Amino acid sequence: MPAPDAGRAPLRIAVIGGGPGGLYAAALLKRLDPARSITLWERNAPDDTFGFGVVLSDETLGGIEHADPAVYQALRAEFVRWDDIDIVHRGRTLTSGGHGFAALGRRRLLELLHERCRSLGIELCFRAEAPPAAELSAAYDLVVAADGVHSPTRQAHAAHFAPHITSHRCRYIWLAADFAFDAFRFEIAETDHGVMQLHGYPYAADSSTVIVEMREEVWSAAGFDALDEQASADQCAKIFTDALGGRPLRGNNSSWTAFRTVVNERWSYGNTVLIGDAAHTAHFSIGSGTKLAVEDALALAACIEEHPDLPTALGAYEDERRPVVASTQRAAAASLRWFEELEHHLDQPVRQFAFNLLTRSRRVTHDNLRLRDPAFTSAVEREFGCPPGTPPMFTPLRLRGLELRNRVVVSPMDMYSAVDGVPGDFHLVHLGARALGGAGLVMTEMVCVSPEGRITPGCAGLYTSEQATAWRRIADFVHQQAPGTAFGVQLGHSGRKGSTKLMWDGMDQPLDTGNWPVAAASPLPYRPGVNQVPHALDRAGLTAIREQFAAAARRAADCGFDLLELHCAHGYLLSGFLSPLTNQRADGYGGSLTARLRYPLEVFDAVREIWPAERPMTVRVSATDWAEGGTSAEDAVEIARAFAAHGADAIDVSTGQVVADERPEFGRSYQTPYADRIRNALGVPVVAVGAISSWDDVNSLLLAGRADLCALGRPHLYDPHWTLHAAAEQGYSGPGASWPLPYRAGSRTPPTGRTDAPRPRLRLS
């Protein structure tokens, strides 16, 4: 493909695809430079459209208003607006207000954009396939590929754009009803075949979009795979007759489909650029497709206007849009997964279920929902059990004989600062400061049960009396100076990930000298050719390590720790038994999940027998390996079920770090869906971890029933008094966040400027 002419602004422009994104891009580019010659190809007729209504946010409308007031005014006259969301579940309807939606018919949107393009002199070619992308790129200065989720342009240059396309587990169909819902409506139907859901919203005074969605196996069991468009519409109308008031549904070339998430490594190639669904998709449950396409068009036109040459402009367009799209796709993925797992939430209390649904994408949170609808949010808080004036995070929780004054946990964080396994002054200050900072529970780093069980030479241990004395000193400080803060110990063994350098000297790199032998379930190195090949533990080795865990637990009890956590995650020894990727044993400790669980459960039982009965025990697990063939979400539920049956009081739900070639889906609160799944499947308390960074996130996760405790690491490194500051920022001063007496004078945010200016007394009109 020829490189774009860096010395010439694009005057001849080809647009492939006549959806909202392509049309709006053409209109903007022509309006910015009337000398441009722009041709748009659309394979369908002008009045052909799929789907019914489209939703645009106030943010997107603001961009349209600024860029093209004529289009904005035309849209404004057509929009249907509403504020409420109705959630109907098991015969009860809960309404949450203050959300602010605007929608109009897709066909009418296209008509308005057609009119705008024609008025600007853009050539619109309908019922016409665009010439091949290579021909267009040779004949035009710029080719805008807005040719949809199945983009032929993307396929023609797949080697360069490098698309990744993921199909998901639900089937859905776009339908319409000839009346207007008075709110955005979510309704759940529990049928003999499984759970189905309706998403409905008005787009005209007499019309609503209705999307019906269900898991693939439910769709098949209900016989939808054998029904045509009209029969599907009729059957959906029967299932959701209450929502529709007995009225029918109609289609428009509607068919059942599985949503496909499209991600491209690159969005431009030479003078060809992808926008809208050709570049990226995001699940319809957050109303993002048309919004993203229109915003792409705005950004592309602006970047071409702002930069002197096309290569720079296309690079700037991608740099600007990619982070925004990635954030939207993460939110859409969270929403999509929530609906895929809908059946696991159905038994929640009705208000908690509604709150969970509203906050499913993590874009709506407890704090902004409280601003939108304080009465609704207060009702959810009362149902949760928040004392008056108490944020959810400062509601107490009891585990056995231990009552935690709040739901914040300082997550275990390896400090790599021990000497011969002995924690020193650094640990006293580090853990003591976080205990003074107000968290309900402060956890040690992983404390190793033997010298060979250390990750690095700087890891702490609990296998000698000297180490126990040092830990007792720290526990005494926490209990004496931070009364009300619980202190927990995490016991673990590094397994095949041991004998490595301190993190800042080379994470997971073997020591230059002084390596010790490592052991694991199977003789598989963490990274072949880099890390040691571990020896597979025999019966004697298994027994010896089990007894090391029990001995460490006895010392931990004597030290005065309030809670003990068994580390069965992150690819360390016990985790290595659980994952099929790291356990290839042929004896009774390998093979089926039941067999892979056997040794970790033996260790748990040995520790539970030693650990005082009134003190709780938790287990940290990796709920997915983020790798093909590894632990699945279903496996994680069964692992948690087994530990709970053996007496675990809570499951600390982490993910990954089991194999070196993992591919995590990083993002805000990205691990919490796994905690959510375990909690709602088993009813066992869970600790959520993973990029939880704000007190608003904590409140949201708790109130939605996705977690009982939230563990935060990096925020507590940034601010040891994170919990107390969260209380101050929320105006809370109750027993869930008690400031140490010497610090009480700092319990309010220091003033940063004058606040003594005279207040206005008169208001003149």
TrEMBL record:
Keywords noted in UniProt: Oxidoreductase
Annotated stretches, region: Disordered: 739-765
Enzyme Commission designation: 1.14.13.209
Coiled-coil intervals, chain numbering: none
Pfam families noted in UniProt: FAD_binding_3, Oxidored_FMN
InterPro entries from the UniProt entry: Aldolase_TIM, FAD-bd, FAD/NAD-bd_sf, OxRdtase_FMN_N, YqjM-like
Superkingdom: Bacteria
Keyword Cell cycle: no
Molecular function GO labels: FAD binding; FMN binding; NADP binding; NADPH dehydrogenase activity
Keyword Magnesium: no
Record-annotated FAD-binding domain positions: 135-329
Protein name: Salicyloyl-CoA 5-hydroxylase
